[in-house]
Specification:
It is a single chain. The chain has a single domain, classed as Gcn5-related N-acetyltransferase (GNAT) (Aminopeptidase). Helix 1 crosses helix 3 and helix 4 packs across helix 5. The model has no long low-confidence stretch (mean pLDDT 88). The chain is an alpha+beta fold and 175 residues long. Helix content is 31%, strand content 29%. The chain has 5 helices and 8 strands.
Length: 175
Amino acid sequence: MITVDGLTLRRWTDADVPALVAAYADPELRRWTRLHADTTPAALAWVALHDAGWADRTRFGFAVVDAAGGPVLGTVALKRHDPDGPRAEVGYWTTAAARGRGVAPRAVEVLTGWAFGRFPSLAAVDLLHLLGNTASCRVAAKARYPYVETLPPEAPGLDGGHVHTRLATGTTTPR
């Protein structure tokens, strides 16, 4: 558990399933996310995915809550395709009720500091988002993730995206 800047980041549990289902009832959240947890079985699978990621060191997912307590405000996760590699990716979302309150950039900032402190081999963390998701561009800027490049669409019907990258202290090139 990490508590910084008015937020607590803690591991997801099965007790959070109702909060996940409620969060994914929001069409705006579903619009920008790939994994949906909008039913109890899907939410249980979502929590299990994060548990498995902690076990194999490839996904460190946190529920984001107000440090003073209260409901889930969102999620933030560090994804490492190679657990010992120099790169990772951050993913996040906030509930409809938490939007516009600075929760996402603060959570991303906290997770980034945690990641660079915990994994000495980590040189860079990427933040990717779909084109058109201007809110995520603002989150990236507020969390000090500079824009690096625009990715083209990968398949018909899919938008391209932006890559923003935060470097560990002392590194000089994003890619």
